[in-house]
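Dataset card, provenance and construction

Sequences and ligand SMILES were collected as paired inputs. For each pair, a complete structure of the chain with the small molecule in place was predicted and serialized as structure tokens. The example below shows a pair involving S-adenosylmethionine. Curators did not alter the output after generation; any descriptive sentences attached to a record were derived from the structure itself.
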Amino acid sequence: MQQSEIQKFWNEVGSTKDFTDPFFADKFSALVKKESFIVEYGCGYGRVLNHLAHLGFQNLKGFDFAPKMIERGQKMFPHLQLEIMKSAALPLAPESVDAVILSTVLCCNPYREEQCQIVREIHRILKSGGIIYLCDFLITPSEKYLARYAQQAAINSDDYGIYLTTEGILVKHYTIKQIVTLLSDLIFSGWSN
Ligand SMILES: C[S@@+](CC[C@H](N)C(=O)[O-])C[C@H]1O[C@@H](n2cnc3c(N)ncnc32)[C@H](O)[C@@H]1O
């Protein structure tokens, strides 16, 4: 499956879905100030940023590669700044962002190249000592999922945790080790909060 097919899915099918994955606002608020510059990478239609706006966070910006997702967000939450991404690079200066939110985005990116692009870009824009809020799906050790991962591992044994959903899209679940490895540049250069 090409990355362009994955992007097409998130634009055409994904943008009709309501996301219900938890956002741990208490944990976020404990680390990030209300006036901080906060960016959500893969913001969907902006439900997390809208929640933060209601909590009093004032400086919020969201980016997503699915134009229909952004159009939906602009209609639902016109007070938010939501932008379509033209590439993996965000139109933001290096080290200009206090906190980045990455909520259930890595799961949409089964290929390492895109995962690394996302993390590299976050690394570039985050201030030293900045916060990354990452929420995603871990490997689920149930019979159903283990069978799905095994099916995909038979095709690509390099990267465990990928599976084909019933909607025909590739998704990835992660081990903690895979997440830590992916974030190692961020962690080992001091962005360890
Ligand atoms: C499951 S939704 C979550 C949306 C939002 N973060 C939330 O928690 O409500 C995943 C979003 O990430 C976007 N996305 C996935 N991969 C992306 C990428 N490589 N670059 C930009 N956006 C991406 C999708 O278009 C989709 O809107």
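Derived descriptions for this record:
The helical segments are 3-12, 25-31, 47-54, 67-76, 112-125, 143-153, 176-182, 184-188.
The longest helix spans residues 112-125.
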